[in-house]
Amino acid sequence: MHRVVSYAAAQGHKNFAALIPTTPYGKVSEAAFREAVKANGGTVAAVEHFSSATNLSDQTSAISKAAPDAVFIPQGGAQLRAMAGDLRSNGIDTKSVKLLGTGLWDDSATGKEDALRDGWFAAPSS
Length: 126
Prior knowledge:
By secondary structure, this protein is an alpha/beta fold. 41% of the residues lie in helices and 19% in strands. The protein has helices at 2-10, 24-39, 57-65, 77-89, 108-112; strands spanning 15-21, 43-50, 70-72, 98-101, 120-121. Strands 2-1-3-4-5 form a 5-stranded parallel beta sheet, with helices on both faces. α1 (2-10) packs parallel to α2 (24-39). The longest helix is centred in the first third of the chain and has 16 residues, at 24-39.
């Protein structure tokens, strides 16, 4: 997480938002995200939480209104792909707003989702 936020900041991204699952992993991810943004001189514009059964329209709309230039999503699989689509339909241009993730994005289906194609995530170094 620190690597992907650090990289995003080095590329000029300073206004961050996040969609965080209401899970133990989400809590740890949010804390690390906030710490990484602060360490890299960025601002956390918005953080929205979701459960696996949540309709994310309200959360993605709130993220869009915060006008971030990067959105962190520590989620994978079908729910990640659905969230990316929701962000787009709520006004987030995923070509100019960088979507950021964790190793949970390391899935061939993630790259097939157009809204996630240009996103960044940190994977284990080889």
